[in-house]
Amino acid sequence: MNLLSWRLFSMALLMAIAVAMPAVVNAQTAQPMTEIRLASTSAGGATATQTAGGATTLEGGDVGSGGIVTPSTTGPEAAAFDGTYIWVATQFSDSITRIRVKDNTVAGSFPVGKRPVALVYAASYLWVANYLGNSVMKIAPSTGAVVATYTTGEGPGGLAYDGTNLWVANRIANTVTKLKASTGANLGTFAVGKRPMGIAFFANAVWVASNFGNSVTKLSTAGAVLGTYATGRGAFGVAGAGDSVYVTNFFGQTITRIRAADGANLGTFKIGDGAAGILYDGVNLWVALHGDDVVVKVSPGDGSIISTYATGNGPFTIAFDGLRVWVPNSGSDSISVTAAN
Predict the structure, then answer these.
(1) What CATH number does the domain containing 314 carry?
(2) Cβ within 8 Å of residue 337, ≥6 positions away
(3) Is residue 306 one of the residues assigned to a domain?
(4) How far is CA 256 from CA 86, 216, 259, 301, 334, in A?
(5) Domain count, the chain
(6) Does residue 338 fall inside a structural domain?
(7) pLDDT one-digit tens code per residue, 161-193
(8) Is residue 329 a part of any domain in this protein?
(9) Total-model pTM
(10) SS3 state at 91
């Protein structure tokens, strides 16, 4: 190897080390979580896409852009708690798996629609958004049976409940669908920003994070747009706490705090690579960092990181059972769990 070639090689090696270093530091300093394995099944020919930050999404090219690879997992992406079980949507097996919280036992898997990517427990039922099925399914938690299926907009991928109605964020259609939970009646479809991802009901409004719009939209319960507010780059997840709404910015590696009453920006805080799902446990915020393979506990006041926990590969979302947080690992066929406080 000549001198020029050696210098180029050395420079490339140093750059690779520099890029990898944050993830290594996180892995070394993060506290451990209990990891529960889920049953593996065929990926069904789906594809995964590598994001600009090096993280990998298992959503058919849904988050970033880059080289296409074949996934080797069922893609556990979403989770929800029904009072007895944690449910996990494994999108590449077109199924949902339940875990008994009292003893961490996997207690069955059940077929749903095409590419399930979002879950919510509401009105005594589990609801599943089927991203490629353009539908939401209503599931009986005691049996895992499908009670009903309702048509949504194209690409449903986010779910929220306002106490009466189910709200569905349609990622491809750039809309939100409102369904009456008791009957499934369609009460309207409303335009929002480009590629709506996270959705939450908070402060008597529905908040929708627009991933390609770098913004969050505030809707009234009648579906009227009350405001659209700038966030960081790649708005992804949304959660309410205190007087504020918090939005994760997947590509910006930050969270943005917005005052719910008037949309005032109260700060944007550095949080980590691939900031995705966010949850408020009543005391602290939790954020899944997809690119760092960790979940962080965050102070709602100033956005500072309180502690960091190692997950499996590629966490996207978070669920809470009242005592513990649960984090599905999209690249590990597992779910990680730890005490919240």
Answers:
(1) 2.130.10.10
(2) 33, 34, 35, 36, 104, 324, 325, 326, 327
(3) yes
(4) 28, 10, 10, 12, 29
(5) 1
(6) no
(7) 999 999 999 999 999 999 999 999 999 999 999
(8) yes
(9) 0.85
(10) helix
